[in-house]
Fold this protein.
Amino acid sequence: MPTPPTTILLRYGELALKGGNRNFFEKRLAENIEAATAHIAKVKVSRQRGRMTAVLKDNLDRIERVAQRIAEVPGLSSLSLCIPCEQDPDAISALINEKLLERFEFTEASAPSTTFRVETKRADKSFPMSSMELDHYVSKRIPESIWDKIQVQLKRPELVIGIDIRPGHAYIYFGRIEGIGGLPVGSQGRAMCLLSGGIDSPVAAYFAMKRGCRVDFVSFLSPPYIGEPTRLKLEKLVRKVGRFQPKNRLHLVPFTEIQEAIRDDAPEGYRTILYRRMMQRIATKIAKRSRGKAILTGESIGQVASQTLSNIACIEEASSLPVLRPLIGLDKLETILVARQIGTFDISNLPEPDCCTVFMPRGPVIHGQLEYCHSAEAGLDMKGLVDRALNGIEVMDIEAHG
Ligand code: ATP
Ligand code: MG
């Protein structure tokens, strides 16, 4: 009977550097993995001697799906599907051979051979062979019938055959699945992402999640100019990018009255900057309600008129929280590449309008000045506008698709 994998070996990269905080990081990571996989199988993550493993408590046939899902949880460099084995060189070698024969059973004789290396790790130092001795022992016992199909190569082989010697038992595994790296979501506090329907802000949200921030979302909508289709698009975006964190909340802020007031009572060239200042101001207030520590945007330098350094400075001044811009140094093409990888690109490309296209100025100011922003805002009922927008907020808790 074939021996199936039962356990997923988890490797973390940067997390390993966190010294005293390590327990906290590992706990967060374990919780996030269990939450991310709950809809596929019951998974228990545990920690032993510097290694983490995920074990399926049911639905064992779904282990590959679970592994693919875990690979998207921030904080892991890679993972491997492990088959448990007796802690004995002959048993290990026999199991590896069984798996290799299975793997190469249907490979054509003329196919180029696969390069491989055996790689032993010993958490149990009482094991009678050194790692290298076991590597050799196993390599030498690979059956002759597949010698023409595989070939040892120590440097960058196509296939790593892993052996993990644990106290009382061992695991074997073939190759690894790359993780996305980063830090566990929730380890760095909360950030409020200004989510437009564009390509950039979902990518900014992804980068912040990858660095351990829990990301909340806020979008500004101007009905009847901007309505239901844009809102559905925003929900779809959150559903997609939200799979990198355990929970997602989207705040929808009515923005029509604010845009109309700015259109009617402020200098035309400053409209976009003033819209953005209002967004930052309101986003900051919402963020602070849930102890958010930063605002997050998809801005990068010089991409559009509102993103010159002078305009970025004018916009940022309206927020009393730090404004994070993970895309600051990326070209649009680089951002698009990430948007494709995380699956948000096609959603962002749906042609629904964003509220910033409403009452667009004919000649937007390229180098805005703060005094002008302040004097324009002095002519508006700022408190009333902000309060009414805050009172009209709709909050949605969105289940992500993973
Ligand atoms: P994006 O692709 O994210 O829309 P962009 O390159 O189109 O970015 P802008 O339209 O200038 O750039 O927007 C800059 C940032 O301002 C966005 O990345 C987003 O964080 C925020 N933003 C713009 N419009 C909205 C909106 N309607 N609701 C919430 N945030 C917005
Ligand atoms: Mg935009």
Summary: The chain has two domains: 7-178, 190-397. The pocket of adenosine-5'-triphosphate (ligand 1) is lined by residues 194-196, 198-201, 219-220, 279, 297-299, 303-304, 306-307, 354-356 (CB under 6 Å). The chain is about 35% helix and 20% strand.
